[in-house]
Each structure stands twice: as structure tokens, then as C-alpha cells.
Amino acid sequence: MTRTIYYTATTLDGYLADPDDSLDWLLRQPQEAGGAGDYDSFIRGIGALVMGATTYEWVLEHEQGVWSYELPAFVLTHRDLPSPRSTTSGGSADVRFRQGGIAELGQEMRDAAGANDLWVVGGGDLAGQFADLGQLDEIVTSIAPVVLGAGRPLLPRRLDLELMQVDRNGAFIVAQHRVIGSLAEDQERSSSSSARRATEV
């Protein structure tokens, strides 16, 4: 069964990038190939990926227009964006630009993943949109020993999670969480509000 996994790196205070969208803080961290949270191990279980426009533009800029992914990639955007020149293997990139929401496109993306998993590359609000619909299954974070104080948030939602595994890779704490759902306190407030409205009718 296809799972939707948000796999990313974050600072200790929960930011994906600094206010200028820089990842310099991340790229200088030591990491062991083949260790916990290793990209090569993770990507073997992925059938398709999805990202927002800002993440896509960052990848194109930092890879000089060459696409490093060989899998179907969905880019959710309302703007016209350039296609990659080629993949790292020299072939044409399977990048699919879409303007709909997760509710409309989720099944298409899961179908593209086949028997493997769907990777939410970023950003945090995109992962949050999957969570809003109950379609985000796991979050795998590599937590760097960096505090930024501001920037792009990891996941701007209120969620309860279950810690499934924690390990270390180089400078990173690697944590795997299962998404339970919206915060219990929020559910209780919503239920209380609904009950009050019902008694007022």
C-alpha cells in the first residue's frame, strides 16, 4: 500500500530554510552514506514525488537546470515554470506541472507511485495540505544542530505524532514519526463547539 512520506531536513527549531531560502546551514553538516535516514536507501522505496513551486525553483537553480530525479515528479503551481533541461542520466525529465489541490490530485500521484511510496519533498505547507486531508502517513526528519530563529517552517500545522524510530547519522538526529492526526486538544475544542451549537438550536 502506498504511503505518503514527508522526508526532509530541518533545524532544531523547526525551519527548512532561512528567510532567504538558503540551505547553507544544511549543506555543511557531516553525514554518513548508508547511515540512518540515508537518501539512497530512502529513494529506493519511492515511486513518485511531489513538491511546491519554491522547492522546484530551488532545485533547478542549484542543479543548473539538470534534474536529478528519475521518478515521476509532480510540481504544484499556479505559475508557468521552466522544465528541466535533462536528467543527470541525460534523458528527459518526467515533471508534471499541476494546478489543482491535493484533494483532486492525490489519487493521480499515488497511482504514479505504483506499489512504492509517494515522497513529499517540500515545502512545509504542502506537507500540511496532505495532513489536512488525512493523507500524510509519515514524517522522516534529519534534525541538524542549527538554530535559525526564523525562516521556512518545517510543518505549519498542529498535529499529534507517534515516534516510531530515532537514530543518529553524523551531525543529524534522524526521527521517523507516524502521523496520528490533528492535535487532540483541537479535536476536543471542535467537539465542544459543535455540542454547544447543537444545544442552541
UniProtKB/TrEMBL annotation:
It comes from the Bacteria. InterPro entries: DHFR-like_dom_sf, RibDG_C, Riboflavin_Biosynth_HTPR. Residues 6-158 form the Bacterial bifunctional deaminase-reductase C-terminal domain. Pfam families: RibD_C. PANTHER family: 2,5-DIAMINO-6-RIBOSYLAMINO-4(3H)-PYRIMIDINONE 5'-PHOSPHATE REDUCTASE, DIHYDROFOLATE REDUCTASE FAMILY PROTEIN (AFU_ORTHOLOGUE AFUA_8G06820). This is Dihydrofolate reductase family protein. It comes from Leucobacter manosquensis. The lineage of its organism: Bacteria, Bacillati, Actinomycetota, Actinomycetes, Micrococcales.
